[in-house]
Amino acid sequence: MAKLLLKLQRYFRRKPVRFFSFIILYLTAGSLAFLHSSFAGESTETSKEPVAVETINGALVTQNPGLIGRVFKETPKPSRRYGPPWLKPASKDPSERGRAGSWSRALKGRSTRDQEESRAKYIGCYTDNTQQRALRGSSFFDYKKMTVFRCQDNCAERGYMYAGLEFGAECYCGHRIQAPNASESDCNMECKGEKNNMCGGTNRLTIFRLELSQESARRYGSAIFKGCFRKPDNVSFALPVSALIPNMTVDKCVDFCTEKEYSLAVLAGQTCHCGFPTLRFPLHEREDEQLCSQRCSGEEFESCGNEDYFVVYQTQVQDNRCMDRRFLPSPSKQLIALASFPGAGNTWARHLIELATGYYTGSYYFDGSLYNKGFKGERDHWRSGRTICIKTHESGRKEIESYDSGILMIRNPYKALMAEFNRKYGGHIGFASQAHWKGKEWPEFVKNYAPWWVSHTLDWLKYGRNVKVIHFEDLKHHLFSQMKKMVSYLGLEVSEDRLLCVEGQKDGNFKRSGLRKLEYDPYTPEMRRMIDGFIKKVDEALKMKNQTGVPEDYIPR
User: Fold this and answer.
1) Span 260-278, mean pLDDT?
2) Which long-range contacts (CB under 8 A, 24 or more apart) does 17-23 make?
3) Which residue has better confidence, 276 or 83?
4) What is the CA radius of gyration of the chain?
């Protein structure tokens, strides 16, 4: 042993060897510390919610967002921080970004009648059996926390017309009810997650017809239902490929058009047409679905339209007319801002602008996850002049006057605050946990960020030059007309065929699922009084600038 120690002592006396040995030890220690912090420092909270089992197209999937496990969490670090001016020095989250998110006011604790009036209409109690389901779409189970709202929201998010609850804990979705009525007294089991409402019974379904929002996507397999439309004037020009299909079904037409590489599958009785949205067939004027109610010859429960009114589905084929993007051919001398409060839909607007114009958008910040998702202008310096407009959440006179003009995106603060809170604590397409919503984080967040919503908007209206105001809600409901205005404002020629392509690719990569929306209203009366006051200030400021004011749904009436 003594000889071994003597050899080690002589070994370390050699200066070059000793120097390199210490370097190797130092690097090894640093690597171990980095690995430890990656696992321990940012570990994911484990949810106490039960595992939900979901069946989609026959496949059984278990879901528990809290059991994702420990993973390396990518935390992009931008070169600049932003936030309310009074929070900037103490900000602990330099990667704060605004993301458009979807939110529906919760119905928990409300009566069935209230739910019917605002979200769904109660249809009745129906029979069901395991061999032939009454509702044959997707399904999921939760034997501890199932609620009427949760089932309705799940089915509505997937675009189904009906939601049914069974055995107090099972949720089924579908486009058709394929079973007879049962006695109301048979649906006698309370929901596992709320004791005031009934969730079916043994082999009995409590069924609701959903009031789908305008942007909801009804699906048939992988295809998206677009609606019933009047026959175009010149079918062969509007829809260049067609075939007569015996025993017509939706699947047959969708498969035929997918094989021919068209994004639209159009059913007209026994005929299947294929094409892309064009000015000859723009899909802007939907007709009453009863006009297309003729049943498919090969499918009893689906509509196939007729020779005058067509049923239209969007296939999985990508419309490539708006997918090319590049940097500006020569640096622009005009800096155009795309300004918004965080959570007001800035990233979504960038996605739409890039598709509509064919040019990349830039950013005052750098977000690696956005760059990896295709926003190649993210790496450019914001003053490079190579991008069509520049994302910013900054406010204040000095920052605003750095731009020659700007598009100001405004969103309902109630929705914007919740979207940013979800991003802050759950990531771009994730959700804040119940602990964050019910803890001190949410009240503190509203206290600091709600005043920033009003000050940000007022600053841009006051100091901005040639500001174009776009409301998130208007863009969502009237995308084609609003995008025409934005493209014209950016000084580019409008391609209407390209805008029709944008409508089919509008969601992008940052749309949150609706499966974990809150089932209660997180805003206290005090918060609402404060935010309502801020909304009135912005409404008055817009009208002073000869604008139309805020949309009506900003303050519930």
Assistant:
1) 96
2) none
3) 276
4) 28
Neighbouring C-beta atoms of residue 235, cutoff 10 Å = 19
Contacts 24+ apart (CB under 8 A), 434-437: 435/45, 437/518, 437/522
Q: pLDDT tens digit string along 449-473?
A: 999 999 999 999 999 999 999 999 9
Q: Which of 169-183, 303-317, 419-433 has the lowest mean pLDDT?
A: 419-433
Distance between CA 328 and CA 330 in Å, rounded?
A: 5
Angle between helices 15-40 and 2-13 (to 10 degrees): 100
Q: Partners of 126 in the beta sheet?
A: 181, 205
Tell me 468's DSSP state. Answer: E
DSSP string, 72-125: PPP----SS--S-TTTGGG-S-TT------------TT--HHHHHHHTEEEEEE
* Phi, then psi, of 475 in degrees rounded to 5: -65, -35
Q: If you average pLDDT over every residue of the chain, what do you get?
A: 80
- Tell me what the mean pLDDT of segment 310-334 comes to: 93
Nearest Cα to Cα of residue 142 among 192, 199, 106, 203: 192
Least confidently predicted of 7-11, 142-146, 463-467, 543-547: 7-11
Residue among 3, 76, 34, 51 at smallest CA distance from 375: 76
Return the half-sphere exposure (C-beta side, CA atoms, 13 A cut-off) of residue 40.
6
- CB burial class (10 A; 0-12, 13-18, 19+) of residue 434? middle
How far is CA 499 from each of CA 222, 471, 487, 554, rounded to the nearest angstrom?
23, 18, 10, 28
Instruction: Kindly give the residue spans of alpha helices, DSSP state H, lying in 119-163.
Output: 148-157
Characterize 378-417 residue by residue with b for buried, 16 or more Cβ atoms within 10 angstroms of its Cβ, and e for exposed.
Answer: bebebebbbbbbbbbbbbeeebbeebebbbbbbbbbbbbb
Query: For residues 427 and 184, what is the distance between their CA atoms, to the nearest angstrom?
Result: 44
User: Of 321, 237, 350, nearest to 499 (Cα)?
Assistant: 321
In whole angstroms, give the CA distance from residue 163 to residue 120. 9
Residues 6+ apart with CB under 8 A from 350: 338, 361, 375, 391
At residue 67, what is the residue type? L
Taking residues 95-112, what's their average pLDDT?
34
Q: Identify whether the C-beta of residue 64 lies closer than 8 Å to the C-beta of residue 51.
A: yes
